[in-house]
Amino acid sequence: MTERAASSGSERKTHALELFAGLPRHYDRVGAALSFGQDPRWRRTMVSKIEARPDERVLDVATGTGMVAQALVRRYGCAVVGLDQSQAMLARARTRVANDPELGRRVELVVGEAERLPFADAAFDHMTFTYLLRYVDDPGATLRELARVVKPGGRIVSLEFAVPSSPPLRALWTAYVRVGLPALGRLVSREWRETGSFLARSIPEFYARHPIEQVARLWSDAGIDAVHVKPMSFGGGVVMWGTRGDGRPGPA
Questions:
Q1: How far is residue 77's CA from residue 57's CA, in Å, rounded to a whole number?
Q2: Do residues 244 and 147 touch, judged by C-beta distance below 8 A?
Q3: Helix or strand holding residue 100 (H, E)
Q4: Any residues with CB less than 8 A from the CB of 201 and at least 6 apart, and which?
Q5: Which residues contact 88 (CB under 8 A, 6 or more apart)?
Q6: What architecture does CATH give domain 11-163+211-244?
Q7: How far apart (Å, rounded) are the C-alpha atoms in residues 202 and 160?
Q8: How far does Cα 94 stand from its chain's mean position?
């Protein structure tokens, strides 16, 4: 499939592209370290909810360096299309795929945007997406577009950061993301310091606009049935999953 460059000029998307351009080389290891090992565990939980068969095709949106695409192939032996708007992240994913013959046979990488997927309706059996909704201007419209390319009955699973609901845990979480995360990021690089500061702002801002209950409703409105919400690590992350409905679009 021909690559398609990201075309949206929104300030949110442009900032995200610039922010992550300098991260791919150490993204996997540093992300795991800054989350105290929780990010890999969250990804494993997300992948476990797909339950794909070897003859099925999964779309992994916001594939980044290809960690989830690799995990899907390793666990299920399925075919995976990994899509991301960042050329820098996809370059790292291509290195991952090139170094593993099995991934080379089963993984295809595509440049594109979640808001405008370059695929036909019902083109995939299942879908995953990771740390995506904070970077789009209209989460509801994006979820409808994501659901569009999944076959009725297919599973859609996501992983996002979250904010703990317990006041004491939320206070600890706030202290870490506002002070600890940028400070630890500074030990790695300027880019990781800026990323830590960005996450400290963007995560609570997103949930102030879209509480988790509203996000679950947006899934349902997009035509995704039986939506489940699983808080991870005392609420610092959240895995959500559901089943594509009968193919009719949800309310606009």
A1: 10
A2: yes
A3: none
A4: none
A5: 20, 21, 22, 23, 24
A6: 3-Layer(aba) Sandwich (3.40)
A7: 12
A8: 18
Domain ranges of the chain: 11-163+211-244
CA dihedral sign, ordered 59, 61, 65, 71: negative
**Helix%, strand%, coil% for the chain, nearest 5:** 50, 20, 30
**pTM score, two decimals?**
0.87
For residue 111, what are the contacts with CB-CB under 8 A and spacing of at least 6? Answer: 3, 4, 5, 6, 83, 84, 85, 87, 90
Q: Is the pLDDT of residue 11 over 50?
A: yes
Report pLDDT digits (tens) over 132-144.
Answer: 999 899 999 999 9
Q: Which of 54, 50, 59 is nearest to 80 (CA)?
A: 59
205-236 residue pLDDT tens? 999 999 999 999 999 999 999 999 999 998 99
Q: What tokens appear for 58 in the block?
A: 């999964």
Residues 6+ apart with CB under 8 A from 79: 56, 57, 58, 106, 107, 108
Would you say 126 and 52 are in contact if contact means Cβ atoms under 8 Å apart? yes
**How far lies 171's CA from each of 62, 118, 165, in Å?**
29, 42, 10
